[in-house]
Structure formats: C-alpha cells, structure tokens
Design a protein that fits this description.
Shape: globular
Structural class: alpha+beta
Number of strands: 9
Strand content: 25-35%
Order of helices and strands: EHHHEEHEHEHHEHEEE
Oligomer: single chain
Largest sheet: 9 strands, mixed
Distance between the termini: 35 Å
Number of helices: 8
Helix content: 25-40%
C-alpha cells in the first residue's frame, strides 16, 4: 500500500482525523507529563513537522510527529524523548534557531500494521526534515520487540541477526532506512504516578514495594508502596539519520 502523506501545515483539515486515529500505545505511556507540551502545541507551532498518512480511501491510517530543537555541539542526551520536547518547545517559544529535528512518534493504525507503512512514514519524516533545511534527523527509538524487561537496553540494542541487522523490528526499520544506532538514552521518558493511577493504567495491584513487571513496559516499574507512588523510567535508543540536505542546518560529522 502506498500512502498519500501530507504535512498538517498544508492540510489543517486533517487535524481532527489525525487526533481521532486509534493508537496502540499502552495506557501508561499516555501519561508522560512531558508529552502534552508537544501534542498541545502541534497545530499552533509544529504543524510543518506533523505528517498524516492516508490510504486509498482517504482514511488516516498513520501519523508521524517530529520536533526541531537545538543540539549544537552537545552529545545526544540521556533523557532523549523528554529532552527534545522540552528543548524544542522552549526554542519555539523563545524564537530560537533549531539545528536538528527529532522524531517524536510514528504510529500506524492497528488494522494496518505489518504492511510497511511505518517505513514510509519514517522516509517522509526524513525528507521533510531535509526540505526544511536540516541535515540531521535523530530518533529516540522505542524498540517494540523488547519483551524481556530484565534485559538492559545496552545489550538488547546491539543484538543482531545473522544478516547483521538488529533483532528488534523497529530498530531494523531505522537501520534499513540508513539510520545509525548511536547510543542508549537510559531515561528517555519518565512516567510518575500514584499507586491508584498505576492500578487504573495497568490493572495490576501495585501493593508491594519493589520492581513491577508491566506488560509492554521496557523496564520494570519502581513501586514504593509505603509512599503510595510508582515511577517508570523508559530507556530508548538514539538513531541518527543524515537527511542528505546540502548546506543544511545542524550538519554533524559523527
């Protein structure tokens, strides 16, 4: 299936359908306190960086969000996803000049997954960054094949198949697209909550202090039953994509 992909800036009429597209993200990930800083400003500040994919019938079946931010000569930070959103919004509010684009999310409607649409959206995101004058697209990738919460991301991220490609399906899409695995972002996303909230999000009891293995979480959630709170610290994997833009902002040699 070949998608028709539009920038939200060019098709603001698609905003309602974009927001209404069902997402397969686990419920607890919808409660990262930083995420709203981006999603609440997409239409007003980042519409050029929001891509909407439609099928032949015109239905919205995929979305891709990215954000421009200032990296400068710094290394990609350990607090990846949260960092780029805070940095990108601050840069926009203050009228700064961003030099790099970061992926925020690529999502495909559940009934259209497994058809290569995520790769199309990734390619469109990279092309969009190049068109806007950025030499580099980075992505704090959430490896969707990591089911063993006990395995450190530092070892999982470098595991490869016999053909040399990553064992993780989503990392594999990025590498096949020309991306390079750069480093682990060990605290890319932090989701704090009360025990009552975590019970609502997961259906688990959260009644004992210690690590709690939550389905689809990449690491255990740290539960403090005595104080009534739990915190999830998610590691991601930084992948760097050159966009091929000539003389663009934010060219990096690493």
């Amino acid at each position: 299936m070949q998608l028709t992909i539009s920038r939200l800036a060019d098709r603001p009429d698609l905003a309602e359908l974009m927001w209404a597209m069902p997402s397969s993200w686990p419920e607890f990930m919808r409660h990262d306190p930083i995420g709203g800083l981006y999603y609440g400003n997409v239409e007003s500040r980042f519409a050029e960086f929001a891509l909407v994919g439609q099928d032949d019938a015109g239905e919205v079946v995929a979305v891709a969000h990215s954000i421009p931010f200032v990296l400068g000569d710094d290394e990609l930070p350990g607090n990846g996803w949260d960092f780029v959103i805070r940095n990108g919004l601050s840069t926009s509010v203050q009228g700064g000049e961003p030099d790099t684009v970061s992926a925020v999310e690529i999502a495909v409607r559940l009934d259209h997954q497994g058809r290569g649409l995520s790769g199309q959206m990734l390619a469109a995101m990279r092309e969009n960054a190049a068109r806007l004058g950025f030499a580099t697209l980075v992505a704090p990738v959430r490896p969707n094949g990591k089911t063993d919460a006990a395995e450190p991301m530092s070892t999982y991220a470098v595991r490869v198949r016999d053909d040399g490609l990553p064992v993780d399906p989503w990392l594999r899409v990025h590498v096949r697209a020309g991306g390079r695995i750069h480093a682990v972002a060990p605290r890319s996303m932090v989701v704090p909550g009360t025990l009552e909230e975590w019970r609502e999000w997961t259906g688990l009891p959260f009644d004992r202090t210690g690590p709690v293995v939550v389905p689809r979480a990449l690491t255990p959630v740290h539960c403090d039953a005595e104080h009534g709170v739990a915190v999830y610290v998610e590691p991601n994997v930084w992948v760097v994509h050159p966009t091929g833009a000539d003389g663009a902002r934010g060219a990096r040699s690493d």
